[in-house]
Predict the structure of FHF complex subunit HOOK interacting protein 2A.
Amino acid sequence: MFYNDKAPVTDTNIPSHLEQMLDILVQEENERESGETGPCMEYLLHHKILETLYTLGKADCPPGMKQQVLAFYTKLLGRIRQPLLPHINVHRPVQKLIRLCGEVLATPTENEEIQFLCIVCAKLKQDPYLVNFFLESKLKAMALQGSASVITEDMIKDQESVTTDTGQPGQPKETPGASGAEHMEKEDELSQQAEELSFGLDELNVATSPESSTACPNQDYNLVNSLLNLTKSPDGRIAVKACEGLMLLVSLPEPAAAKCLTQSTCLCELLTDRLATLYKALPQSLDPLDIETVEAINWGLDSYSHKEDASAFPGKRALISFLSWFDYCDQLIKEAQKTTAVAMAKAVRERFFIDVMEPQLMQTSEIGILTSTALLHRIVRQVTSDVLLQELVYFILGEQREPETLTDINRHPLRHRLIEHCDHISDEISIMTLRMFEHLLQKPNEHILYNLVLRNLEERNYMEYKPPCQEDKDVVENGQIAGAVDLEEDPLFTDLSPDNTLSAQEWLSASPPVSPEHPKNDGKTEVHKIVNSFLCLVPDEAKSSYHVEGTGYDTYLRDAHRQFRDYCVICLRWEWPGSPRSLEKCNLEASFFEGHFLKVLFERMGRILDQPYDVNLQVTSVLSKLSLFPHPHIHEYLLDPYVNLASGCKSLFSVIVRVVGDLMVRIQRIPDFTPKLLLVRKRLLGLEPEGPIIDHMTLLEGVIVLEEFCKELAAIAFVKYHTSATP
């Protein structure tokens, strides 16, 4: 039977014949025991009907045939339960048909193409070893070079086990009780359908010779290449389906597939090039608040309509597109096989973070700095993949782990610039950069805290160590280090009278229900002395919280308990020591430098009385987050006022002491200081309406932040001590 090759395929009976063939094969499988190949399926495989269909589809003759062939392959793979892909007369034409997909975008067959590719991906996800059949050209090329590392004996045996020497599947078993006449009837019917489909191939002038199985290097993994092409489709639904297919493929555990994916396809280039393109399409200036608050981004849901958005802003469409694609890259790397994930993450670092983002972060334009830092902050918040996070951390901080010195703080230029931006002349830039570091510190990556702080505290050379001797019996029962100054004798702390302090028992009763206090025989300063030291830092005349209900330390205790528990979970796998390193093993002679990050934070903390309220809130927020980490050296350096500091060293407590000394002098020059302070606090809490401008507003707000920060540090110290004391 012959057809007019100019007439569309829908005007012929080919579609109905294909449906009948499929129905016959499905019915046959349903009537047989699981795993058995019936005569109709045997006929389909033995007579290479799928090869014939591929040839017709490639020629698209009659017009529309490619669409029909794609749909037939999709339904066949989807509806037949027995594994078909291991058969050479299935996976070979499937591989050839894959190459036809994504060749041209926005074609009428795009929907069928993506459906076909996705069903192949789903089959590979079910049986990952099957992916080796789709790396055939690469395997043969390597075999010619004598590469035994990729082609294993098991792989060869697997292929031989599913095909005979002639490339045909083994003969099926006869099903007991099945009528031979029925089989012959169905086989004849299938044969008739197939013969009509293979009409006049010679008349169509279509070459039927097998295609060369050796493709050029970037086409070895044709399934990936076709999906990559379809991710560029103008039809968003097609692009999302292609992304889903890639998500399945990158997660396959087969090492050969992972190697081919990263070395012989353009996957890494596509991810990074599109990230770069979308980033460069963003406006030069975006409101940081818009970047921070734009709705949660899901890569598969990119149906933004500017007309329907009441909160639209210039560049929102571009911002959502960029963040959606970054989310896709993040999820792809998160799901990927390990070597694939590492390769993709390194590509993102080199081709996007360094090549595209770094010049923007290093620029001198304040508007540009603010926008690029806000985008970096959003990326830090959004990233969830551990592998991509590692590359992001190395990009921001560098890979150095040895102690810092003042002369080499510029060793990693971006790290140096970002830390300097924490003390920028622009308050907006300072706040945004501090917020970025605050969120970075909360990420589950050990290198972050080590690079910023811990590497400089390892030797504990911030302490002046006096070896214990007979004359040094001032190591009191509370474990205070020999030679440490008693704060109760310090002229700055004349308020430390019994009436103004809390006893250890009062602190224990004020905290959530806990076990009895740990006995003090481990050399640590008693917790109630530490707590009272922080609580009594600010003199009474500079305190205002006790005049306002609901501003006591108990709120900080509850928050500290919750936050410290969360931090302990993050740090659990880092295997930090439970106690400080022995001083005998430390190099106390080495000069101490707290590191660039703490240096800038301490400098900002020292100016708390002269900085805007919002800046002070952010500086103290970062310092409190650092104090929460359950590392003994951080606790000792940031939270123990009784540490005997080496000459020229400063700690968080010593910085606050200097601020309080300055405050006590300045208080004397401000008339009605306490009433003004109380009024400012009530205004900040919304308890008083805004009124006339008050003199010394910056200083008064700074005092309020200082008082609250000291209460927060006291609560953190108490919670950390109590948690470590609980068995």
Summary: The two ends are 87 Å apart (CA to CA).
